[in-house]
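User: structure tokens for this one?
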Amino acid sequence: MKILTLRLDEALYAKVLCMSKRRKTTRSEVVREALNVYFEKGNNSSKGSAFELAHDLAGAVAGPRDLSVNKIHLKGFGR
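Assistant:
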């Protein structure tokens, strides 16, 4: 295992210390765990177009294809 030294501001250090005491583990383990979560989420959450982010929702709603062409669906819109 490699050693890494880092500097934390007082508030962040206090959070790490509090978490390590609560979990009854070392500060190093808390930081390792946080870094693993950060890198795992970073790889899974890719930024893209609106469609790329919500592609699993496309077609999930039943109803008319285009509400703008049917005046019944626009009744009262903007009031």
